[in-house]
Structure to design on (1037 residues):
């Protein structure tokens, strides 16, 4: 079915660069796979019935190969990883199939032998480093455990080895880190410690389950480089479970795409991501926000939600969401079509569709001009933030040892948001971006400075008990489930703000709720459902609908799409853009993902350590001159094969930000630090055209000399 | 850690100061006055007044409180009116016996309760779990005096294996001492076991679902190591708090149990003082009981820090 012969996995362009393994000679016989999964079927059973998490899943990982296992949440990818480790738990059961590791079927081994393999021959690193280390034990002891158990080292020998391992994963003071407790380390350091644990017994296979998902992008970039380097130098094979195609592109030679517990496509990473054959793969790739994409277009999205099977699939699992599906797809299960190169696709139409891209979204309607004339917009912004400062945990006490200066979350931030304008705030955890959002809604009282909303001081109004302005400013959170009361129906949750706004007629409120649900693309009947009956994307739509209930002018979106799958994320981004265009809403769009912000924001603030280091129209911020932090952020954005250029990547140290000092907040991690001036003096603000401002000690002319991270953008006029 | 302990000690002193005022005021409001009790039922008003003047009872309350509090700070708890002895030695003796009861009972409750809780959590939903739940509920649902009476009847009166009450100092030998402790301790254990077992079970279940337990399993650690080294230490935090509260409770006197087993601890002393209107003894006993409670809680918080390095470091930072 493939038209062009594919490169061998190891020679995939996706791993070009210093860290890539040597390309294997094309004609060498393929080595036997290290891990060979065949016909793996896994079910979760409870009183309400069974759910199939994996149906007849098969894939192979050869020695020294890193395979990506990708798919949306609910696709069964983590379940498969856990099944290989024999750690399914929670009612999960392997129904049938073989898991061949080095030729032995793991399923036939007794539990004790499988346990002996774990941490020794097969090691794992999981998603969340913050919770994967035991808070009550030192890091060194936790790394030493498998060495003592599997390799029979004495605690003293193990301690020596622990320091070697920590040094190998790039930790500069191994002795201190080994003696530390997990909470004393940053997230990046914790993840390094977990990787050191996994490497300890020199395993043959690594199971990496979303190992960088919880980390900041700049830290993620470093961890991925480390993993790629280690896999190469130790000739490790790895199963890399991820939802992030950009990361998969960087580290995996082959990729297997899962949908609804079924493998829909497998092949060399470069080929699958640049020329996906299965419609689902096409959709996933298309829905990924790209910095280089034309912002006037809507992001393509995949409608619907992931299928849940209870038995063997009776039709193509993806048919209900597939734009190309026909009667045959809906009535017959699909077989895997393979070619000689190990590429496979589970779609009988794959060849016919080979040139057909995922359909584009309907073109965006023309954007409603901001209310009022341009002059008025400029003269009277909707939100004015002036020298905002917020310190947490400061306390004055009569007991001298209890007095605390507190932690600076936001250090002197000033900006404005115009009517109908979308301002993005980009920064990593601890940058103070959420605090800025909360201060704008008077959910936290500024320690200094003012926030004016439509010319009035919101904080003072709220203090006096006046909620009228607050109704005009609303909030949408990251965690769609936690922001809805599980005991209240969607309708009841949305009714509340209407009651508070003084709408007395119940019948009229019901109609409003129905109207709002329709507005965000949900059936009006959803008013009677409970949050747990909805998917993550649907719940986020409900949260948006609820925020719209009081007819606000301004909405703060705090990581509103970060927890969603790419396909759903695109969907919600489109909805937010639509609402902005039709209702003239202003947003403060807080995110860690600069690619997402580039899709929706007119202007961007790049924040670091509680200060704005760069701000300006999005088109300006994405092009040089850059603040060194912006440059690092942009270069950390993972890209797909087709976008990939040989741009030098900037890797930052994982030191934590220390806001509140005298100098530049970024000085400690800055790769272009000038010297002591950066530590001791606040950086001057360079202002260029269109309100583009950079706070840096490096002269603007020098900053402008840097090459663009996205050269494809260089020629365009900023929009 | 030092700063934290210092802070807590300052608070402890504040709490006790407030407590002393309350105790003093409450005993003032109680019927009967010290002077007429000392003078006896048939004394003339003059005699009573003379005694009152001698004891300073005619002075304003604030002065009386000041004198009393100053005495306590010097270690002088006053004299018991009924026993006509200094209070401090009586109180210390009773406190010592309550301490013995508390330490033995809590040691049993901690070991058995935590073990049962862990077992139930590990075998969650299975027969063991249901059995532990059922039995521990029975302990909590049936009042302590019922168990006490049943035990006295079975082991004391019927089987005649154990003394039905009283106390033997350890100087009389280990066996008599221990045999007097068995029944009150078993009653207390039945009363306190359920809560500890249930609490340990639920926090253990939470901890067993954490990522670090999953990661410990992924490292190939056997279940015993996963449970004892990785899970238990983290699961014990809430249990420690409750154990400390229970400790304070027993130390402060478990009146019903001490009465049934005629165990001469703090509970019986307080009961005696109240029944006989021995106001100085009431004041001193209540104050010591509050101090014991506060100290038990302080110990719990310090233990907490010992178990959880995160809290320990938070204290260092402060």
């Amino acid at each position: 079915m493939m038209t062009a012969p594919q490169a061998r996995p190891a020679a995939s362009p996706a791993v070009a660069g210093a860290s890539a393994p040597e390309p294997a000679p094309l004609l060498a016989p393929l080595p036997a796979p290290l891990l060979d999964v065949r016909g793996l079927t896994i079910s979760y059973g409870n009183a309400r019935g069974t759910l199939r998490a994996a149906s007849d899943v098969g894939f192979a990982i050869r020695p020294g190969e890193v395979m990506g296992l990708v798919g949306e949440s609910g696709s069964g990818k983590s379940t498969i990883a856990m099944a290989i480790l024999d750690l399914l738990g929670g009612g999960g059961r392997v129904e049938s199939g073989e898991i061949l590791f080095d030729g032995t079927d793991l399923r036939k081994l007794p539990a004790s032998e499988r346990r002996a393999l774990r941490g020794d021959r097969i090691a794992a690193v999981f998603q969340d480093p913050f919770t994967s280390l035991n808070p009550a034990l030192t890091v060194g002891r936790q790394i030493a455990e498998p060495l003592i158990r599997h390799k029979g080292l004495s605690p003293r020998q193990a301690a020596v080895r622990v320091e070697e391992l920590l040094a190998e994963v790039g930790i500069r003071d191994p002795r201190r880190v080994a003696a530390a407790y997990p909470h004393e380390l940053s997230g990046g350091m914790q993840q390094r410690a977990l990787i050191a644990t996994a490497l300890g017994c020199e395993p043959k296979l690594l199971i990496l389950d979303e190992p960088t998902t919880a980390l900041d992008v700049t830290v993620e970039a470093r961890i991925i480089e480390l993993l790629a380097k280690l896999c190469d130098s130790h000739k490790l094979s790895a199963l890399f479970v991820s939802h992030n195609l950009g990361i998969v592109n960087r580290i995996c030679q082959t990729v297997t795409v899962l949908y609804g517990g079924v493998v829909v496509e497998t092949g060399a990473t470069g080929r699958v991501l640049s020329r996906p054959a299965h419609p689902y793969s096409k959709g996933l790739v298309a829905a990924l926000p790209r910095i280089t994409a034309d912002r006037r277009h809507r992001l393509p999205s995949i409608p619907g939600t992931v299928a849940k099977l209870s038995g063997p699939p009776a039709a193509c699992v993806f048919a209900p969401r597939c734009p190309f599906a026909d009667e045959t797809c809906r009535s017959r299960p699909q077989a895997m079509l393979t070619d000689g190169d190990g590429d496979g696709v589970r779609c009988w139409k794959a060849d016919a569709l080979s040139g057909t891209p995922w359909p584009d979204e309907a073109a965006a309607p023309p954007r409603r001009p901001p209310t009022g004339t341009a002059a008025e917009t400029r003269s009277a912004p909707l939100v004015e933030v002036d020298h905002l400062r917020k310190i947490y945990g400061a306390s004055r006490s009569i007991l001298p040892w209890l007095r605390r200066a507190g932690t600076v979350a936001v250090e002197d931030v000033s900006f404005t948001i115009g009517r109908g304008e979308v301002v993005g705030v980009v920064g990593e955890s601890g940058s103070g971006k959420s605090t800025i959002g909360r201060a704008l809604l008077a959910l936290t009282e500024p320690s200094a400075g003012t926030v004016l909303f439509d010319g009035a001081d919101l904080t003072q109004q709220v203090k006096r008990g006046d909620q009228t302005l607050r109704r005009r400013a609303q909030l949408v959170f990251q965690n769609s489930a936690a922001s809805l009361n599980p005991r209240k129906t969607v309708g009841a949750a949305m009714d509340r703000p209407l009651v508070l706004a003084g709408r007395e007629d119940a019948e009229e409120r019901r109609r409003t709720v129905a109207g709002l649900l329709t507005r965000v693309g949900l059936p009006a009947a959803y008013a009677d459902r409970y949050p747990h009956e909805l998917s993550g994307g649907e719940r986020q739509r409900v949260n948006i609908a609820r925020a719209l209930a009081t007819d606000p002018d301004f909405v703060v979106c705090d990581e509103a799409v970060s927890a969603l799958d790419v396909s759903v994320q695109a969907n919600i981004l489109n909805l937010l853009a639509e609402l902005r265009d039709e209702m003239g809403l202003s947003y403060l769009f807080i995110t860690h993902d600069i690619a997402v912000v580039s899709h929706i924001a007119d202007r961007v603030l790049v924040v670091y350590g509680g200060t704005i280091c760069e701000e300006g129209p999005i088109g300006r911020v994405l092009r040089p001159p850059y603040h060194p932090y912006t440059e690092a952020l942009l270069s950390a954005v993972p890209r797909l094969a087709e976008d990939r250029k040989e741009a030098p990547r900037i890797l930052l140290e994982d030191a934590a930000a220390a806001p509140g000092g005298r100098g530049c907040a970024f000085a400690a991690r800055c790769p272009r630090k000038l010297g002591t001036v950066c530590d001791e003096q606040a950086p001057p603000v360079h202002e260029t055209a269109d309100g583009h401002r950079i706070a840096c000690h490096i002269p603007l002319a020098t900053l402008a000399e840097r090459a663009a991270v996205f050269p494809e953008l260089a020629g365009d006029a900023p929009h | 850690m030092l700063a934290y302990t210092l802070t807590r000690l300052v608070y402890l002193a504040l709490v006790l100061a407030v407590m002393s005022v309350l105790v003093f005021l409450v005993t003032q409001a109680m019927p009967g006055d010290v002077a007429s009790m000392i003078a006896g039922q048939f004394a003339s008003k003059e005699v009573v007044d003379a005694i009152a003047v001698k004891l300073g009872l005619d002075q304003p309350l604030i002065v009386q409180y000041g004198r009393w509090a100053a005495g306590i700070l010097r270690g002088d708890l006053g004299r018991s009116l009924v026993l006509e002895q200094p209070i401090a030695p009586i109180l210390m003796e009773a406190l010592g016996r309550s301490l013995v009861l508390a330490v033995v009972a809590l040691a049993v409750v901690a070991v058995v309760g935590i073990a049962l809780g862990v077992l139930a959590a590990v075998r969650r939903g299975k027969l063991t779990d249901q059995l532990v739940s059922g039995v521990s509920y029975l302990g909590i649902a049936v009042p302590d005096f019922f168990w006490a009476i049943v035990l006295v009847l079975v082991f004391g009166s019927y089987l005649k294996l154990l003394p039905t009450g009283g106390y033997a100092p350890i100087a009389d030998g280990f066996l008599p001492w221990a045999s007097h402790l068995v029944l009150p301790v078993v009653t207390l254990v039945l009363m306190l076991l359920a809560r500890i077992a249930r609490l340990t079970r639920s926090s253990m279940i939470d901890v067993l679902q954490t990522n670090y337990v999953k990661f410990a399993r992924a490292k190939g650690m056997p279940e015993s190591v996963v449970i004892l080294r990785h899970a238990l230490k983290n699961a014990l935090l809430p249990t420690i708090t409750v154990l400390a509260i229970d400790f304070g409770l027993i130390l402060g006197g478990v009146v019903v149990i001490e009465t049934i087993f005629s165990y001469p601890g703090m509970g019986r002393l307080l009961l005696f003082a109240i029944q006989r209107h021995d106001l100085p003894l009431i004041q001193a006993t209540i104050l010591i009981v509050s101090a014991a409670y506060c100290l038990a809680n302080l110990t719990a918080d310090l233990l907490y820090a010992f178990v959880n390095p995160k809290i320990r470091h938070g204290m260092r930072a402060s």
Notes: Residues 87-122 of chain B form the longest helix (36 residues). Chain B has a mean pLDDT of 86. Chain B touches chain A at residues 3, 6-7, 10, 210-212, 214-222, 225, 229-230, 233-234, 307-310, 313, 318 (CB under 8 Å).
